[in-house]
Amino acid sequence: MLITLGTPSRPLQTAACLLGLLTLTLSLPCEAIGVSLSNKLVSVDVDDTGGSLTVTDRVSGRVWEPDPWMGSAGSLIYKKGGQSGWWNLSSASDIAVTKTTEDRLTIRFHNQDGRGDMPEWTVTTSVALDADSATLRLRVLEVKLPQGYWGSTLEYPQRPFALKTDVDRGAGVVPYWQGVTIPSYIFPMNGGRFCMWDDAVHSPNAIGELRYYDWDGLTMPWFGTHDERSAAMAIIPYDGSVRLRWIANYNNASVIAKNHFRRSEFARIVSLVPVWDLSKITPETTVQYQILPGGNHVTMAKHYREIAKKNGLWVSLEEKAKANADVEKLKGALYIGIYGGYPHYINLPGMAFTFDRLDTIVQDMHDNLGLEHAFVHAWGTFENYAPVMWPISEELGGQEKLKQVVDRVKGYGWLYSSYHSFVSLLEHDPNFNIELAPTDDEGRPLLRHRWKAVDEDRWAELAEACLPKEMAVLGQNADVTDIAFTGKVGEGGRRLADYLSSTGLVLGTERGNEWAVPQYHMFEGLVAPYRIHGKALAEYSHGAPLFNLVYHDAVTNFGKIQDPNHLVNAHTGDYYIKSLRAMLQGNGPMLFIAPYEYEGVRSYIRFAAKTLGPLHRQTAFEELVDHAYLSPDFLVQTSSFGDGTRVTVNMGPTPFEQDDKVMPPYGFRVVHRDGRVIAGRFQHQAVVNGEEIQF
Amino acid sequence: MLITLGTPSRPLQTAACLLGLLTLTLSLPCEAIGVSLSNKLVSVDVDDTGGSLTVTDRVSGRVWEPDPWMGSAGSLIYKKGGQSGWWNLSSASDIAVTKTTEDRLTIRFHNQDGRGDMPEWTVTTSVALDADSATLRLRVLEVKLPQGYWGSTLEYPQRPFALKTDVDRGAGVVPYWQGVTIPSYIFPMNGGRFCMWDDAVHSPNAIGELRYYDWDGLTMPWFGTHDERSAAMAIIPYDGSVRLRWIANYNNASVIAKNHFRRSEFARIVSLVPVWDLSKITPETTVQYQILPGGNHVTMAKHYREIAKKNGLWVSLEEKAKANADVEKLKGALYIGIYGGYPHYINLPGMAFTFDRLDTIVQDMHDNLGLEHAFVHAWGTFENYAPVMWPISEELGGQEKLKQVVDRVKGYGWLYSSYHSFVSLLEHDPNFNIELAPTDDEGRPLLRHRWKAVDEDRWAELAEACLPKEMAVLGQNADVTDIAFTGKVGEGGRRLADYLSSTGLVLGTERGNEWAVPQYHMFEGLVAPYRIHGKALAEYSHGAPLFNLVYHDAVTNFGKIQDPNHLVNAHTGDYYIKSLRAMLQGNGPMLFIAPYEYEGVRSYIRFAAKTLGPLHRQTAFEELVDHAYLSPDFLVQTSSFGDGTRVTVNMGPTPFEQDDKVMPPYGFRVVHRDGRVIAGRFQHQAVVNGEEIQF
């Protein structure tokens, strides 16, 4: 019986049809035409006893062996009743490798009922190698399980392109938020950091999964590993049907100790495993592997950049600025969020501003702090809670007063948006409208997490009910609509984005997502992962500007408003580190303050106006061309932009010497194409009874 | 049938015996002598329809009502087969409140089979009020479930002494690590921090549990809530039989939305609920409540301090210094960890030191950086992996060379310990000895988490096999034995502590635990919680020096070595914040570096020598007398010590004005009893092309 390529639907019928053909082919006596595919760049050898793949990068000579733990081709994870289990594809009783054409082979893993304590099951995959490029295409053609079993996922290939910890010098590369790399070897680091790092990779948390598109998932549909000779990069589908499992320098020790009362005999490895969700894939679902001789995280990102361009996801800021001249105002802007309260609350005690106060802040930034470019994002300007963003608060000063502020902002050549959400239901809202929630089959309201609790079908309608009124009154030139676009959206989300795009405003949104790049001008927070929330990945990886290497010249990127530059965070650092990272990666400066804090952050605004802003103004619309780690502890990094600007930063307290130049602790060095140099450093200082002590 | 006060054992027999008596009493017609207990300080009224408690603080007049959600007296959580469920005690068909003596009553909750869709079950509790003090004692005398049911926990009283969010101005007080308080109202905070905070308390993570003694649990067996009029504090047993459940400004919204398709009608509350583990309690197990009119977190800690003294847990540093003069050397010491590698690794690439290098560092700190007091803790001095801490590495320079370093350290009047663990098994150890692991009933090795993988019965033996040899060769004057004492220990752990104590060395250990206070001189890291690891509590609470309010003059406390002062962490802050917090709470300065970082942290050492150390020297052996939050955003705090020293700090970027004095951003002010003032601030500075810009 055939099961599990999905609920009966078109894809499944396709599968069934295709499988009929395959079964015919495979029922012939096994006349292997051969078990290799090869072109001048790559060869793929299939082990005909286990069906696993060995991939050779013929340019560098690097041989990528199959699964270093068990030599397994893949694992089929099934459920039966309430239990789940897995079968090793390579333990199938019959494995047939068939070269169907010159550039394509199929591998059929078939287990006869009762062999190896398993029932009858079949998995058939195909591997194709492009004629003239180092591109492999993997598909899963058939998954058959016996009655009563349900196929959950297929891990295929199993633990491919693995790096042996402390043997291979390389890294796993994962577009998690802005991006991270997981080194495959021990390197010098702070004593305290080392303890945390090493513990994290000696625990079950060294394994985890990410899906493309989720709020806390992959921001681009690819990942890869590389050493000093070769890189192998997987490109997965945009539909989320194939997930990533990472193994970060782990050997499964705790599972083995618990179940087998012995030590793990597996090597510690870094490997990135494609996990095929059998309820979502079709026989056309493809995982594409690209072999990149001498490649690293930059090579991978640049390879994907070309794919993104072909798919229409990459649209340049230059082009966007031609359609809307206000987009130019993002260059060098300080993105400043002023949190007067709403949401989460209206007239929040101790935090709400008046529009007069807002006006004073805006003037002070311009007149006294030298701020030439800014994007002002004011939170808390309405009388109602989300998703009803209207009317403008009379208590705070009324719409005429707020218009004065907006006029002033525009007069300075800056951008303005009030905070908007059209997708939230807040429980403390006195006008909480449960009618806006989606309902289940029985018509009962489904109250999901408050920020995204409105039925997606209503999002655009709610925006259209409020935003035109606000535009008519204020004449703002930008829009930040929060929350809606942080994860995958359906038709309703697309309609909201289309509507917002139709307003002609400069568009920004929280976090941001790849699909929004063509319509959006700024993302607030596609930065280093700032939350761990179960994702230990941030603990044992280094930040890498993967998203910017693809999209820096397509969408501007500013810090995450929940993790502004003047707060500290375990994974993203303090003000120095965040500022240095923004300079390196080409992000704009940002602050997010409650009004009562304004006095305390004036000096940060002055510094942004003087130093961070002008650098961003230079590079905002340029491609991020390159990025590299320079110091053994990964804290000194360098990058370069399309206009020739090169930025080098030291994100640690240890001086670093290279080419007779010393990069001081928390230092930076910007070299422009014309030879102009801006060199400096951040430092700690204490003033004790009048005496200055520098760190 | 009687079940569930434990597996058949002495406590259960006691219970059965006692229950016989009670059943007799309660089978009499209900002649309630009354349903109240009262003395001049407190009255307790029991609702005889629901059996819930109302407690009145008669001094302040504050009436603490029962459970604000359901008026429930308590909840009995049971298991049946693989399922679990709960019964509301107040929904029992028969509730009998009986005053057994003037100062004691029992409450019997009995449900008749079939009533309220429940089978027959009984729970009997007792409440006693001390004659002359505001002390209530609660016990659970009887828990009876029908055959096939298994009693798991009893939440009793249910949601007591609750604060209504944004109505009551108070806090929950929890000795989690050094201690935290959870305000019951919205207060001004940074815009970004507010988003994170408010989200965290509108999610299921606003509820969680802690147990006394666990690595990540309660560090002292008490907790409480207070508002501006009254405090109620629970003291729970030392054996971990009663846990804490916290509710942090939550109303169970998500559970209700999911199960009932509607909004929560419960008020958001802060409440701390005792959770009785029915497999561990006996009828003598007592939860003691103390009512403290006008009390707060300081009052609670000071009340517990007296209990700790009575229990012999509090032994003064002064007394300890009389027994061992070296203990005085902790006063004002910089605790510096130098991480050459072991553990986790021997001769760690890029990080190992030689003993010559260590000697140079020690001399430089003394001669050039003005360091007068220090505790040097060197990691990576042996040739073997833990738990075999011997011989001293020849490759790094040999034992004579290391002795020179130790002699130098002692000559300066400092303390020295190499890093020790006698409890770990590291998988990369070429001499990994699986024989040291504990075994299960079938004799199979149980390989637990690597740091505590050695059978506890072997700990002392392993220490005794190594430490005397090292002492004979080096003559060190201190010992840091890591890991062993971070959680609850059994006899084996006690034997190790006793052995270490018998060496006459100054004793320090990782994190530390209350039971170790009498034997130990310094704890490395009973500080602000630095890990979240599933404990969202750190996200929506403020640090409070609860442990120090009890034990500051009994054991010195330094920073956590995994979270040293020069690294940043979301929950503990950056260098400024950690230094200010250490000044405020009376902790010593600390750094933890890899040798290659030494150059980069010399300025921090100089600052510790000049400013942080001398303050600690003054207050190290003094009681921490008081602590208060001054600013509305909780970032300005003050404390005072037994010698009259008062410390005020501002842990945020906003200037704070009080009594005509302005506390600058990241500022501090130390006033000694003699009027001497040390005032200062930390600040950021950037130097750009030679120009200094201050923040």
Overview of this protein structure:
2 copies of one chain form a homodimer. The first copy, chain A, has 695 residues and is α+β, with helices and mostly antiparallel strands. Chain A contains 12 helices and 37 strands. In chain A, the strands form 6 sheets. Chain A has a 10-stranded antiparallel β-sheet. An 8-stranded parallel β-sheet of chain A has the order 28-26-25-24-23-22-21-29. In chain A, a hairpin with a 5-residue loop joins strand 3 (53-57) and strand 4. In chain A, helix 6 (355-367) runs parallel beside helix 7 and helix 8 (459-474) packs parallel to helix 9. The N and C termini of chain A lie far apart (71 Å). At the A-B interface, helix 2, helix 3, strand 21, helix 11 and helix 12 of A face helix 2, helix 3, strand 21, helix 11 and helix 12 of B. Strand 36 of chain A pairs antiparallel with strand 36 (677-688) of chain B, so a sheet runs across the interface.
